[in-house]
Amino acid sequence: MRIGIIGGGAVGLLTAAYFSNHYDVTVYTRRQEQAEQLCTHGLTVICGDERTTHRVHAEPFVRETNVDVLFIAVKQYDLTNILKTNMHMLRADAVMFLQNGMGHVSHLPHMPHHHIALAVVEHGALKIDDTTVSHTGVGKTKWSVWRGKKETFSFLYTTDARFPFQYVGDWETMLIEKLMVNVAINPLTALLQVPNGMLVTHAPYRQAMEQLFHEVASIFQIEQRERIWQHIETVCQQTAANRSSMLRDIEAGRMTELDAILGYVIERANERCVPAPISAFLYALMKGKQLEGETER
Amino acid sequence: MRIGIIGGGAVGLLTAAYFSNHYDVTVYTRRQEQAEQLCTHGLTVICGDERTTHRVHAEPFVRETNVDVLFIAVKQYDLTNILKTNMHMLRADAVMFLQNGMGHVSHLPHMPHHHIALAVVEHGALKIDDTTVSHTGVGKTKWSVWRGKKETFSFLYTTDARFPFQYVGDWETMLIEKLMVNVAINPLTALLQVPNGMLVTHAPYRQAMEQLFHEVASIFQIEQRERIWQHIETVCQQTAANRSSMLRDIEAGRMTELDAILGYVIERANERCVPAPISAFLYALMKGKQLEGETER
Prior knowledge:
homodimer, Rossmann fold
């Protein structure tokens, strides 16, 4: 079976590596250079003390794929470019999306593919360089079918024990819960420039996160608030020393997922005419931080 | 005429220096050491290229003063200690308060003094060491009578042209407007760790400041919003390169005026049952920053 993965970031590389032991994997990269490096040197995963190198195909993505299963592992803000292309050129029986946020869901009805799945990645992964990814936290990937047959994706269960998949019935709840985690942790850690754990060890930060959480939970009319809030606290504790991806992006002066995460929340609030003062305030502060980064460069 | 000044910080020292040319000035300090230094070396003001040294009396404050006019120039958070003492020990015909915030106003009815004035300082001043203050921005001191006769304070108009006073009729509007300026500029610059000017040069920061401003203006039922907002923007422009006192306090791990400024706003909002989500969120973030500072030390 041929597996294609669009995106040579941390999530794309991690997924490529774990499937490459059993399947014929092609990574579609944005840059020619990364594709060449991957073909030449292979793809290395660091997990604990272990370091393994995997053979993968790689080529720059030119709006065309020809595989059995296609994983789309680009950031939300790069997705629009891909979805703007002729969908029929993305030849694949099945497609799985690995994005944070929910911006991609509205594009799904326009896709011609028979089998479409959505997933959220709960692994810690850090791209070290173009051919190396560090698996910093072994978690799982939750997934759900949006269209088509669940059985099409049964191959997911053939990978390494360190890269498990877990099926969940309701894709919307799955995405919203992941969004809630990202909303609570990412912009705040990036603004305050603190590791995840500090959001729960420092009572005032915890309070601010809780205020934000309840505002967003109201916007999405979340019912099981207590359970999701506990999940967020657990994530902060389990990844206490981690610097969130948004914090790392801000520090490196890179584009962030702010629009896909907090921008999406504000859009939904506006649509539903629900006030979102804290989300809008935090969004503006983070936009300013991004602008500072751009001005400094 | 004998003038007493409680407080050896930037505002206290600046006030002492400019009155010392015409009057017999005593600075009441918190620390014995500062009083000794002031007696030995005098009080130096740096203003532009000019450096002048003034002779002043100084002694540690031990709950007692004996002067004609008393300026109270301690931070809001130190005021409680002073106002807890036997008020009759603060011997003075007239008292002038030089605080940010409005927390002190509720204590005034308990004071035995015949003439009480309130003032807000619009100078830039930076304490360099125990005997040196830099007059970084020449502005003015607005003042108003809370009780007693305006004429008692006519001596204010005898000082240097670089230390002018301006009478305003309505003390409440004066204090609230100064509070609005402090609320808009201080916590945000301290949180973002940016100089004042960036709050207007960076559009998203300006937007966040405006959101906060409107929330607080609603809490205080401010009518002339446009005028005050323009004043805030002017202050940001005129002090563009300055780091606000709260930012400097946070950087130095010192206590801040957060409670006197934003804490006061939240109290008023709670009393009036008006929502204050942005103020409460920003307050929690800044409390966390303070806690970080304390933990690091």
